[in-house]
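Working notes for the structural subgroup meeting. M.R. asked for a predicted model of this chain before we commit to crystallization trials. I am recording the input and output together here so anyone reviewing the notebook later can reproduce the run.

Input as submitted:
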Amino acid sequence: MKEDINETWLDTEGAAKYLKVSKEQLRNLVAGGYIPYRKLLSRNRYKRSELDELLDRHKKGGWRYGCEERSEDGEVDSFSQPET
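Returned structure, recorded in C-alpha coordinate form:
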Protein backbone atom coordinates (compact mmCIF):
# COMPACT_ATOMS: atom_id res chain seq x y z
CA MET A 1 0.00 0.00 0.00
CA LYS A 2 1.41 3.38 -1.02
CA GLU A 3 1.45 6.04 1.69
CA ASP A 4 0.86 9.74 1.12
CA ILE A 5 4.23 11.53 1.10
CA ASN A 6 2.54 14.62 2.52
CA GLU A 7 1.39 12.71 5.63
CA THR A 8 2.03 14.57 8.87
CA TRP A 9 4.33 12.73 11.28
CA LEU A 10 4.74 13.70 14.92
CA ASP A 11 7.47 12.95 17.43
CA THR A 12 6.61 11.89 20.98
CA GLU A 13 6.26 15.45 22.26
CA GLY A 14 4.11 16.50 19.30
CA ALA A 15 1.88 13.42 19.54
CA ALA A 16 1.40 13.94 23.28
CA LYS A 17 0.42 17.58 22.72
CA TYR A 18 -1.90 16.59 19.87
CA LEU A 19 -3.66 14.00 22.05
CA LYS A 20 -3.55 16.34 25.08
CA VAL A 21 -1.82 13.77 27.28
CA SER A 22 1.56 13.76 28.99
CA LYS A 23 4.55 12.15 27.30
CA GLU A 24 4.51 9.50 30.04
CA GLN A 25 0.85 8.70 29.36
CA LEU A 26 1.63 8.44 25.65
CA ARG A 27 4.51 6.06 26.36
CA ASN A 28 2.23 3.91 28.51
CA LEU A 29 -0.38 3.77 25.72
CA VAL A 30 2.32 2.81 23.21
CA ALA A 31 3.72 0.13 25.52
CA GLY A 32 0.19 -1.24 25.97
CA GLY A 33 -0.24 -1.51 22.20
CA TYR A 34 -2.99 1.11 22.00
CA ILE A 35 -1.15 3.57 19.78
CA PRO A 36 0.63 2.66 16.53
CA TYR A 37 4.10 4.08 15.95
CA ARG A 38 7.21 3.70 13.82
CA LYS A 39 10.76 3.66 15.12
CA LEU A 40 13.33 5.80 13.34
CA LEU A 41 16.85 6.19 14.73
CA SER A 42 15.74 5.17 18.23
CA ARG A 43 12.86 7.68 18.17
CA ASN A 44 9.16 6.98 17.94
CA ARG A 45 7.18 8.63 15.16
CA TYR A 46 3.39 8.79 14.98
CA LYS A 47 1.18 9.31 11.95
CA ARG A 48 -1.34 12.03 12.71
CA SER A 49 -4.01 10.32 10.60
CA GLU A 50 -3.62 7.15 12.71
CA LEU A 51 -4.01 9.18 15.89
CA ASP A 52 -7.17 10.71 14.39
CA GLU A 53 -8.50 7.22 13.60
CA LEU A 54 -7.75 6.14 17.17
CA LEU A 55 -9.69 9.12 18.53
CA ASP A 56 -12.60 8.44 16.18
CA ARG A 57 -12.78 4.78 17.28
CA HIS A 58 -13.00 5.88 20.92
CA LYS A 59 -15.54 8.66 20.36
CA LYS A 60 -18.07 8.97 23.18
CA GLY A 61 -21.36 10.76 23.26
CA GLY A 62 -25.05 10.19 23.39
CA TRP A 63 -27.83 11.58 21.29
CA ARG A 64 -26.69 15.16 22.00
CA TYR A 65 -23.25 14.60 20.51
CA GLY A 66 -23.00 16.84 17.46
CA CYS A 67 -26.69 17.71 17.48
CA GLU A 68 -26.35 21.47 17.44
CA GLU A 69 -26.30 23.28 14.15
CA ARG A 70 -26.12 26.97 13.41
CA SER A 71 -28.57 28.55 11.02
CA GLU A 72 -27.52 31.27 8.59
CA ASP A 73 -28.41 33.97 11.12
CA GLY A 74 -26.13 32.38 13.75
CA GLU A 75 -28.91 30.97 15.92
CA VAL A 76 -28.35 27.53 17.42
CA ASP A 77 -30.85 24.94 16.23
CA SER A 78 -30.87 21.86 18.49
CA PHE A 79 -32.50 18.61 17.63
CA SER A 80 -35.10 17.40 20.09
CA GLN A 81 -34.48 14.31 22.20
CA PRO A 82 -35.43 11.14 20.33
CA GLU A 83 -38.60 9.43 21.44
CA THR A 84 -38.21 6.13 23.24
